[in-house]
Amino acid sequence: MQPLRFPDTRRALALLAGVVAFATAFAGVAAAQTPAPSATQTRPAAGGNRVPAALRVNAMWIWELSRSDGGDIVAIGTRAKAAGFGAVYVKSADAGKVWSQFTPEAVAALKAQGLRVCAWQFVYGRRPVAEARAGALAASYGADCLIIDAETSYEGRYWAAGRYMSVLRSKVGPRFPLALTSFPYVDYHPKLPFSVFLGPHGAQVNMPQVYWKDIGHELADSMSWTMRVNRVYDRPILPIGQTYQSPTSPEIGTFRTLAAGYGAASISWWEWAATPARLWTALAQPLVQPVDDAILDPGYPLLVKGNKGDLVRRLQRLLRRTGRRVFINGRFDTLTLNAVTSLQQRRGLPVTGKVDATTWQVLLRRPVTPAPSPPPQDAPTGGVAADVTSR
């Protein structure tokens, strides 16, 4: 999540680290299975039909309550409803430390304004049990859901992610709405344990931070890339847009239209205090529906032998579900290749050993919609989502 103040040197290091990680760990990964979005598929890429009620309404993120309309709950409620928001996401904890702004009284007051209230917690993975307890406390305070914000600090911490989710679920129960928010480009952050946070008994919803201006990509490209690499986790995708860094009003409208086209059940925006007055007006404008209600198809990530990272871990888990014998190690090794070719042969697919759109659809138990397979494409140029180590 992008903070309101971010040192230039730290931003540069974050961008460089992301590019280096992508270039080294994901060299050879085809970024797209299709060259551009199309309206050929029957299931929305965002999979919005399985979203818990608490996350099915548009929302605005709040980092510091006191800086959001001066902490005036009535003013917050009035502004939120005028902009068409049905919820606010308020920071409740940083690591294992509960923030004093998130109290049962504050939650009740916001709900009295007709808003759903979700807590969000920034996690690091150094003390996963303490973090899980702090996250669970928000549920006991009346939060409608909890959003887990895991970023660079969690890279490589697979055990910690599993421990955090296990303890958290034991405290909030199997049905309490949980969501993950993190970087939009999974392949730029191959060591981040998306497959654990979004795995069995994990978060029901995936909320990537599609901050196109901060990333430095065209909005449509950024959204397509995000949908492509996140859809394989088989969780509803609710993209987060940005109102900081002064996006234009047309960009706000385009983001909303694209999200609807991909089938997102709702969207949210970062962040309340950083939103200029003119954008509150833009947020309140009627949604421009996609042309012909087209369901955009961003394609699927193309994986080949030699690739590494969490997308490969996700592949290996799906292969295991089909009965194939593979190690879940994040490396597209010979054992993984043999499992892929075995699956393709058994299902009557072209035996290429490459995990293309058709292979993903079979693994995800979705209707197969054949699509052309262009040559592998490079990642888009530019920076990556800003790294935030403390908010």
TrEMBL record:
Region ranges (Disordered): 367-391
Biased composition annotated in UniProt, kind: Pro residues: 369-378
Species the sequence originates in: freshwater metagenome
Gene3D superfamilies in the cross-refs: PGBD-like superfamily/PGBD
Domain Peptidoglycan binding-like: 309-363
InterPro entries the UniProt entry points to: Peptidoglycan-bd-like (IPR002477), PGBD-like_sf (IPR036365), PGBDSf (IPR036366)
Database matches in SUPFAM superfamilies: PGBD-like (SSF47090)
UniProt-recorded name of the protein: Unannotated protein
Pfam families hit by this protein: PG_binding_1 (PF01471)
